[in-house]
């Protein structure tokens, strides 16, 4: 198909497709003339993946790394997962204190050597962001966070398809990244439901008259 | 304190502080001369909040809305939560089909009227992103997502402090936004742990010899 039809099929503007071509995210089509090329279903599928990743908040540079992991995956699904995570996280610079992050990770079943340093550094940075705002997470809430991510991660990993490397690769790489906006969106719904059940229509009484 | 000390205390560069002042995120200090101002602890605290929000991926425009909700909060913690969510989500344009999102929301205890349209639209957009990549979430995994967000949201809302409106405001507004990077980071650790337990060192066998 020509680039105009590729654009129609994927709902990605032609100018954006050309940008992805220039950035090397999308491979060149087959040249039919000096100014035209044709594209096949593999381009369409790749373009859908690119659009989904970028729509999920992944940068162009990170998207390139995710695509690299899809194109040339490590043999083990475990290393695949590491590659997918690495693609969307800044590199660990060894500067951040991961003591608190390791404590939480142990509650998730972590032991030294089981996770990339980068992933622990990511937890440490996130904790730092919370603390710097002067926000304290109640112990009961942190316990709920740990229980929840353990539940969902076990289900995710249990369902990695193993009938083919390609299926495992797509599932692991896309699943870890694309699901992030969905989880956050579902959490907002659940928060509003719980809040309506607890507070709907009631007002927090100030301690003294205004 | 002068702007240089504010910078030292908060580890925010002076140029960045001046940017926040120009953008109106940070209120002006008290002028002590035509070219100098002094800043107090309320500036320091606000700056920490700004930095934490922006570090959590919130844009300047969204940060402004979060700060507005902190400065002039609705009376009800439920409306507060809606304001915090609204600050970090694009406005609903009524164009997206929310049928699938509503089905998932019902599994989270939603009933019509219990949530902002915007939050449901957010779920719909996230689902759309996943589907457009050709990624299918196994039923067991979706069930785990729903169970997990329900668990964590109930703990979050149960722990909203009610002894003062200010405490409730900070908790709700900051908690819903600042926690997002932490949840995603904890999920990555949990995924790597579960993956190491399932796959560590093993290779997905291709169906035919390479």
Automatic annotation (TrEMBL), chains A, B:
Domain HTH merR-type residues, every copy: 1-69
PROSITE patterns the record matches: HTH_MERR_2
Signal peptide: none
Entry keyword annotation includes DNA-binding: yes
Transmembrane segments: none
Superkingdom of this protein's organism: Bacteria
Assigned keywords, A-Z: DNA-binding
One Pfam match: MerR_1
InterPro entries per the UniProt record, alphabetical: DNA-bd_dom_put_sf (IPR009061), MerR-type_HTH_dom (IPR000551), MerR_fam (IPR047057)
Classification via Gene3D superfamilies: 1.10.1660.10
UniProt-listed PANTHER family: HTH-TYPE TRANSCRIPTIONAL REGULATOR ADHR (PTHR30204:SF98), REDOX-CYCLING DRUG-SENSING TRANSCRIPTIONAL ACTIVATOR SOXR (PTHR30204)
Protein name, UniProt field: MerR family transcriptional regulator
